[in-house]
Amino acid sequence: MQSLTNRAKTVSNKRMSWLERLYFPAIINGLSITLSHFFRKKATVRYPEEQRPFSPVFRGQHVLKRDNEGRERCTACGLCAVACPAEAITMVAAERKTGEEKLYREEKYAAVYEISMLRCIFCGFCEEACPKEAIYLTERVAHPDYFRKGFIFGKDKLLEPLDKSKRIDISKRVIPYPASIKKPSS
Length: 186
Ligand code: SF4
Ligand code: SF4
Known about the structure:
This protein is an alpha+beta fold. Helices cover 18% and strands 13% of the residues. The chain has helices at residues 18-22, 24-38, 79-83, 125-129, 155-158, and strands spanning 62-64, 89-95, 108-116, 135-137, 152-153.
């Protein structure tokens, strides 16, 4: 019967010659293909000792940013969690107490902020949804772990260090504000 795609092959049912029945030519042919691969340029890299440069649009482990005064930017509004298609983000909001103004920028902050790296698909929607420029994806690769609970990244792993020299540079990911829109103070 004529196939719809016209790509059907008619299988030959001819008897094998005595040479073909020896199988040696086929084995030698196969080994020569394998051997030829020894002399080709390797397609693999010896990760993690050797690393390939990332694409400029690579999205890796998140960072929770602090402002210039070292205060946490996140105000636990939950917009990132709502935008997350993988439902990877959970948080517990808390009210800032008197005397904590140097720790948290807004009156409400995330006492607990967790991202499940097993769920996250690194789409960057959380970054786009955040009105406070508090969460960004970075070029860092999320560390592997032996246990599932090790993939729940809390503030201990997400929040950037207080030390200004150890802050995470996200300048490549920040979209410049159009001249018509006033940039909020950092
Ligand atoms: S990168 Fe995407 S999947 Fe991962 S936490 Fe953000 S919104 Fe969710
Ligand atoms: S990271 Fe941004 S969007 Fe998410 S809760 Fe904090 S302020 Fe809201």
